[in-house]
Amino acid sequence: MPSGTRYWTVVDDELVAVRDADRFLREVRLARGRAETTTKAYAEAVTLFLRWCASTGRDWPTAARDMGLFMLWLRWTPGNNSGARVVVPGPGGKPVRGDSRINAVLTAVRMFLAHAVVDKVAPAWILEQIYELGDDRDLPAEARGESGGMRYRLRARHRLQEPETEVDRASDEEIVAMLRACRSARDRLVVLLLSRVGLRPGQVAGLHRCDVHLLMDSRGLTCDVEGAHLHVVRRQNANGAWSKSRKPWVMPVDFLVVQAADQYVLERYERLGEGGSDFLLVNLFRPPYGSPMTTDAIGDLCEALSRRSGLGRRVGPRMCRHAMASNVVDAGGSLDEVQALLGHKNPASPRPYLHPASDRLRAAVDRVPSPRLAGEGEAR
User: What kind and span of H or E run contains 325?
Assistant: First the structure.
């Protein structure tokens, strides 16, 4: 767009934007403040839905009544990039899309249809086809509110049961091995920002030099926060980096991060001098020199370090973030501290990031007194 803001949309065979889909994706990006990658995922989902409607002769504003057939189509019909156009499923056949992918497509399609109802493009009864009236008894206690009474909400009618998959944490040994496999001060700083600070890849790639305050007293920078810290800010970045958290927050850092940042500043100055963009992390070893690193580049770096250090598995940025949260708790940190450090709004959000150490679990069991011993003590 002329302002520099970008979003993904849906085009027809003539490369003309589909009006209703384009209006929906513009609202997601501009009015709801979602990331550019979110509009990409939603645009792909809406494209699949419109393609299914066109191939089966259905009118998309009223096709929600056959949502089950759409789910079946998603499971067995390949995309345009596949050589096969028609798949006849049989016993032992492998689905084209898994349950989690189908659920993600359905979520975007429901939002698209609900927007069409509000926009008077689709009839209002469509909402009854994609949602059912439910209560809040299946929600966690933190999401039920403080009124005490039962509340009603719209619950998705079509959703597959996804297998629960937990993200493992990176061990301290794996993180040390990745640090030893780094070939530059910049790469070491990236690993520490992921595993020691707990930032997401988009937040790491979106850091500007003005966000980094590594002095004990930053009042000279018009900042009253004490100690070395980072400011995590959500903004429109030229490299597409995006902070998932809407609210900015301050992340304290320790001496390891400060030392790594100092070494990187010297390395950057030796290669670029005073040049380069205002981003903290930039290209130093391949053109375009001085341009900001991307989120994909950080993921590629973690994959290369995992392979180079011989870990036997890929340690991704999310596993490093889990390691940071688990280490805080193992060191005696409380759940509210983990919530603040990770930038979470919901108090229940940090729980999936916690992976208690086995020795801490053993110590918790050993602290429970034996009933027999307690009874013998009273008898004496």
Answer: helix 317-330
Structure tokens at 46: 């809406």
CA distance 94 to 109: 24
Question: Cα–Cα–Cα angle for 15, 294, 253, nearest 5°?
Answer: 145
In sequence order, the 6+-apart residues with CB closer than 8 A to the CB of 66 are 58
Q: What's 236-268 look like in SS3?
A: CCCCCCCCCCCCCEEEECCHHHHHHHHHHHHHH
- Sheet harboring 229-232: ordered strands across? 212-213, 229-232, 249-252
Q: Which residues contact 49 (CB under 8 A, 6 or more apart)?
A: 60, 63, 70, 105, 109, 112
Give the Å distances, CA to CA, from 152 to 95, 135, 137, 195, 221. Answer: 35, 4, 9, 40, 49
Confidence of residue 359 (pLDDT cuts 50, 70, 90): confident
DSSP structure string for 57-93 = T--GGGGGGGHHHHHHHHHH---TTSS-S-----TTP
Q: What is the spatial distance between Cα 7 and Cα 34, in angstroms, rounded to a whole number?
A: 10
pTM over the 0.85 mark: no
Q: How far apart are CA 271 and CA 289, in angstroms?
A: 9
Query: Per-residue pLDDT for 46 more than 90?
Result: yes
Enter the tokens of residue 332: 């005696």
Pairing between β-strand 131-135 and β-strand 212-213 as defined by DSSP bridges: unpaired
What is the spatial distance between Cα 171 and Cα 322, in angstroms, rounded to a whole number? 10
Phi-psi bin for 276: left (phi > 0), alpha (psi -120 to 50), beta?
A: left
Termini Cα distance of the chain? 82
Residue 91 corresponds to which tokens in the numbers above? 């016993």
Mean pLDDT of 88-98: 75
Task: Show the CA angle centred on residue 13, arms to residues 11 and 19, nearest 5°.
Answer: 35
Calculate the alpha carbon distances from 43 to 38, 77, 299 in Å.
8, 18, 23
Per-residue pLDDT of 251-292, as tens digits, reads 999 999 999 999 999 999 999 998 889 999 999 999 999 999
Instruction: In whole angstroms, give the CA distance from residue 61 to residue 332.
Output: 54
Please give the structure tokens belonging to residue 94: 């492998």
